[in-house]
Amino acid sequence: MHLMSIAQSLTLFATAAYANTEKVIFSAPPAIRIPDTGPLLETLQLVSLSAKSSKERLSLAVNFPSEEQPRGLESWYLLRDLSPTQRYEVRVCWAAIQPTTFWLDTYTVDHVFDTPPLVQSLAAFSLERQEANSQLLTGSHTGSDQESLLFLRLQAAADFFSSNTTLMQDPPPVDIDLLLDPYLGNFFPRSLLPTGTYIVLLAIGGWWVSGVIWKQYFTPEKAHKD
Ligand SMILES: *[C@@H]1O[C@H](CO)[C@@H](O)[C@H](O)[C@H]1NC(C)=O
To answer: Are residues 122 and 202 both part of a single domain?
Structure first.
């Protein structure tokens, strides 16, 4: 029992460590023809997440919310090589010492290109990236000419107050992990499988221990029943 309670308090810590997580859950759209959009997608120079590279560690510029940018700064990513109709989640994880509010949204390629505010935001972000990185990302994408893909928009606003005016005018970049996680059987995120297995084992263990205790301490009482 002592061991069990130690194990249980450890799970509490594990949840606390992941507390700063924001996510979006979506089903992958049907595949579209890439020859139409392929060259355009490569020139955008976005960071891509796919089954092969499902995790990116990034240093993200943030702003405090303002009139023009109520949700801080926007950044754009590509989710590539998805399996149509498969359910996924994208998670952003960050440290508690960098208080930030995040909003995640996924959009199909058509939706972005048909919505002027979205395409403007994407273009502005892409241009900024191209100016900052002189060396171009080489498109590592080689696949069939059909692909299921989505745009991911991340909005990040600093969420703290400091008496230090330097910090308030120019909040420091936030270190984030961005993760693409497919669901197993469309209901359970694959990367959480070890944690899930652990919790299930813990539950079975607890059930077994309670059975033993029940037998040892309570069954004789039952004999008194008349
Ligand atoms: C304000 O924060 C900046 C950045 O962390 C730091 O360099 C500076 O020393 C701070 N100023 C004061 C008055 O604490």
So the answer is: no
Candidate of 166, 169, 170, 174 to mutate for ligand 1, largest count of ligand atoms within 8 Å of Cβ: 166
Average pLDDT rounded to a whole number, residues 178-194: 82
Model pTM score: 0.75
Residues 198 and 186 in one domain: no
Cβ–ligand 1 contact at 167 (below 6 Å): yes
Q: Do 119 and 186 fall within a single domain? A: yes
Q: Does one domain contain both 134 and 214?
A: no
Residues 114 and 133 in one domain: yes
- Closest CA to ligand 1's atom 10: 164
Over 50: is that where the pLDDT of 18 sits? no
CA of 168 to the centre of ligand 1 (A): 10
Question: From ligand 1's centre to the CA of 163, what distance in Å?
Answer: 10
Q: Whose Cα sits closest to atom 13 in ligand 1? A: 164
Rounded CA-CA distance 93/90 in Å is 10
The boundaries of the domain holding residue 212 are: 2-10+194-225
Instruction: Check residue 15 and give its pLDDT.
Output: 46
Q: For the residues of 35-69, what is the DSSP string, one character each?
A: HHHHHHHHHHT-EEE-SSS-EEEEEE--B---SS-
Average pLDDT over residues 76-92: 94
Centroid of ligand 1 to alpha carbon of 156 (angstroms): 22
**At 120, phi and psi to the nearest 5?**
-65, -45
Size (the chain), residues? 226
Residues 103 and 182 placed together within one structural domain of the fold: yes
